[in-house]
Design brief:
By secondary structure, this protein is of the alpha+beta class. The chain contains seven helices and seven strands, in the order αααβαββαββααββ.
Length: 298
């Protein structure tokens, strides 16, 4: 009886040491890491026995938790980008409205403005208000930027260029910069989402006005089935790669955090790709930044 008991104890000891100790320690350590919200690890016990099966199931659970954790943080980042995108893209129409209101106050008080000019300014202001309403309605319907649905309609290229030129003049005047716009003479028809195109154009113009020394050049054209809007400034150009510049919340310097969210190029890239095109970013030969926004227009 004594030998039987001793033999059983020895057998249990060696069974625990060889079969249970390692996987139990693996599971104990893994449980503690999960409790500490650390999911970047792997359960490495791979013996083909019952404990090996349990460790394999535990590893699968860890992987699912890690995936869900990444998805949760991605959703949080998407919501943060969406909130800041709303603030970012509403700012441009509001800036233009402010510019026109200041112009009206200046010239009306001096009685040096024609009625026709007042009507034109008010009509432009109503257009900006419509843009804000459409933008906020679109943002209300989606949970992140990529879900925006295109609403394409036909418009004469010269008419679109006229609207872009008016906004370019107002944005550049506000910062005392000179903006040269290459006029479109041909009567081409383009089928695009006008609101989306204007939002991207505003982003590119704001960026150019911010970093230009004296002047900005803007060109609008249709080529090979694409509407192409090019904006070039005489600043120092881009100091980072295209991938870096189009990341959300990108800033060239910390001072940008005071007034800008660093979303302009990111939003522009997303919207261009949504419209079947892309955003090209590089430095011009003579210096300065050059950005081309391409929108499929057929």
């Amino acid at each position: 009886m004594i030998f039987s008991i001793v033999g059983s104890v020895v057998a249990v000891f060696f069974f625990y040491k060889n079969k249970l100790k390692t996987p139990l320690q693996e599971l104990k350590d893994a449980s503690q890491m999960i409790a500490d919200n650390e999911l970047d690890f792997h359960v490495s016990y791979e013996n083909k026995d019952e404990m090996g099966t349990l460790c394999k199931e535990f590893e699968m659970m860890r992987g699912d938790l890690a995936d869900n954790n990444r998805k949760m943080w991605r959703m949080i980042d998407d919501e943060k980008a969406l909130r800041n995108a709303i603030a970012h893209d509403i700012r441009s129409p509001l800036s233009i409205l402010r510019g026109y209101q200041e112009m009206l106050l200046e010239f009306v008080s001096a009685e040096s403005i024609k009625t026709e000019d007042v009507i034109d300014i008010l009509q432009t202001g109503m257009y900006q208000i419509d843009r804000i309403e459409h933008f906020t309605e679109n943002m209300r319907k989606m949970s992140h930027l990529e879900q925006r649905e295109l609403q394409c309609s036909e418009i004469e290229l010269s008419e679109l260029a006229k609207k872009i030129e008016a906004e370019a003049a107002m944005l550049s005047k506000k910062e005392s910069k000179l903006c040269k716009v290459e006029r479109v003479q041909e009567q081409n028809i383009v089928k695009v989402d006008e609101e989306l195109v204007m939002e991207v154009t505003d982003n590119l113009l704001e960026n150019a006005v911010r970093y230009a020394q004296k002047s900005i050049a803007l060109q609008i054209k249709k080529k090979d089935g694409f509407l192409i809007i090019s904006v070039e400034d005489d600043g120092i150009g881009f100091v980072d790669t295209e991938e870096k510049v189009t990341e959300p919340f990108y800033h060239k310097n910390p001072q940008d955090d005071l007034k800008h969210f660093g979303l302009g190029m990111y939003i522009s890239r997303i919207f261009c790709e949504k419209h079947g095109g892309n955003l090209k970013i590089y430095n011009a030969r003579q210096g300065g930044a050059h950005v081309e926004a391409l929108f499929k227009a057929e």
